Every structure is written in C-alpha cells, then in structure tokens.
Amino acid sequence: MKFIQEFRDPELVEKFVNELHHITTQPWTIMEVCGGQTHSLVKNGILNMLPSQITMVHGPGCPVCVTPLNLIDKAVYLAEEKGVILCSFGDMLRVPGSKRSLLEAKARGADVRILYSPLEAVTLAQKHPDREVVFFAVGFETTAPANALSVVHARRAGVTNYSILASHVLVPPAIEAVLEDELTQIQAFLGAGHVCAIMGIEEYYPLVERYKVPIVITGFEPVDLLQGILMAVRQLEAGKYALENQYARIVRPEGNPEARKMIEQVFSIADREWRGIGTIPQSGYEVSEAFAAYDANRKFSVQIEKVPESSECIAGQVLKGLKKPVDCPQFGKKCTPQNPLGAPMVSSEGACAAYYHFAAAGIAD
User: Fold this and answer.
1) What are the Cα distances from residue 111, in Å, to 86, 107, 123, 330?
2) 3-state secondary structure of 58
3) Domains (ranges, CATH) in the chain?
4) Which residues are 295's β-sheet partners?
5) pTM of the model
6) Counts of helices then strands in the chain (DSSP H, E)
C-alpha cells in the first residue's frame, strides 16, 4: 500500500536507530503527544530500540481518555432518562462513567448505537423524526470537521431532532499545559501529524519560541517515528530549538483550509476540562451560538454533578507524562481492559491499553 510499506522499511529503521545511537551523548526526554503514536512506538518495539539515554514520555493525546467523567455521565443520562438515540464511535462505549459506561447503559435497555460517521446519525434522525438523536462528538481537531459538517448538513436538510454532545479538545494548549507544569521534564515534542493535516503548523511556532523547545510534526509508522525522534535529538544535541515537519508528505503549513472553515463555521473556542488533568484555558471547541439548536448541552439543559475520579487510578499523571502505565499499582490487576479503572485502559489510543496488550511480549517495559 502506497505510503505504508515504505515507512515500515527495516533498512530505514536500522539506519535511523544506528544514527540515534551514534549521536546521542546525554539523557533526553521527549513526549509524543498522540496516543496513536504511543501505540505505534509500543507495538513496533521502538521503545526498546532507542538508546538508553532517550526516554519517551506518553502525552495527553487520547481524546477519549481526557473526556470528562461528568460528560460521559451526561451521555448516559440522555440515553437512559431522556430516551434519545445516543450515537457514538465504538471507543467511547466502554469508558467508565461515575456509575456506568454507555455499553452498560445499552445492556440495561438504552438505545445506544455505534456509528462510523456523524452523517449516519443525521440520516438516523431523518428516519426517526419522532426521536431525538444525539451524536457524542469526541476528538481532537482531526474529527471536528466531520462533526461540524453533520450539523451544517442537518440544518440544510431541515432536521431538527439532531444534536451533538461536543467534547473536542485542542493539541497546542495541551502542550502548553504540559510545559507549564512545574514537574515537567519534557525537552522536546513529537507533534500529532493528523491534527496538523487539518490545522496546519502555525500554532506551534509561538510554543517553540516561548519555551525554547523543539517540536517535530511526526507521522505514525515506524520510520516516521524514528525519523521524528532523530530530528528532535539532533536539535537537542546541537542546543537548538525549531519547528520541523517530518510528516511533510501529508501536512502542509496551512493545513486543510476547507476543513478549517467548516470548524470555524460551527464551533467556537472555549475553556475545556480534561479528565485527569483539569481545566485548560481555550483548549476545546463548543457549538457556537449560530448553531445552538444543534447543541445537546443547550437543548437538554442537563446538569450533572461532578464526581471525583477513582483514587486508585493515576490516569491524570499518565496523561501529563509524569508516570508510565506500569507505575500504577493497579495496572494489570484491578485495572484491565475488561475492568478498567480509567479511560487510558479502554481507548484504542490509551497508553495503559498499549502497555497492557504488548507488555506480555516484552515489547513495552
């Protein structure tokens, strides 16, 4: 497959690994922001290929993992008490709320459905004009255009029984929050390539300049990741800091202008709570006033009391890059993918799930 096998080339992998071992002279700590990158690093055994001086830290780049507990409770409430058809991507269904997950709500009789596109939810609303249909719109900037498009499409089609429960979070403010944490030891970042494919790279220049930290926009295949790490280490070893784009085959400096227009049409930027981390200013999207009729928060006016996270779960420290999954006393014991204490053990992009699935093979340690 084009642009897949080329970036899994064992010879290129060996070349980059050898160069990393050759140029690395002191300890460096690098955070990969995206959970998809975390899974690729773990699954492909890259963590064990790196020089011992390089520590990869797993960041908050899993939108499912950082969706607030009370928002999941709200989705459950809408499905169980308001009788809506609650639609979601599959990775949200098993994330625990304070009482139960959406999958458990479905087992109790709620109409919860797994869809592959928010546009399917609009079609569902057209087929069931007597029911309210809510799409749980979770994701980074990457999924925001499709969710925005569903709202625009619904309004154009005159569909009034459709709305979205928005939980979109933004990557640059998350990087800034990590850098502002007094305990952080991060010296460079691998940026999320798929996010930059939508948003472009302009937002990262101020972060590089303000914090004097290298940021390398990076893809997801083994060659991408190793080359991204190598580019970051070259800067660190030379005492330099700059924004570089390893993922230039996909990411353009301006991103995708049409997708950005769609986001700007439907969403506005607001403060957002990140599960396990807290509120990060101006770090999320909410449905704008112009499309208030399609905002489930406004339509249903549901107030859900906030409940504290499990005291046994250290997901917040994992998401901030302060701890590794294996540092958690409950990892693989009370907390497993079958019985998760926190979202990072559930999501396909969660660091805890990556370590759990691949540690048995000695890939993650």
Assistant:
1) 6, 9, 16, 33
2) strand
3) 28-305 (3.40.50.11740), 315-358 (no CATH)
4) 164
5) 0.90
6) 14, 11
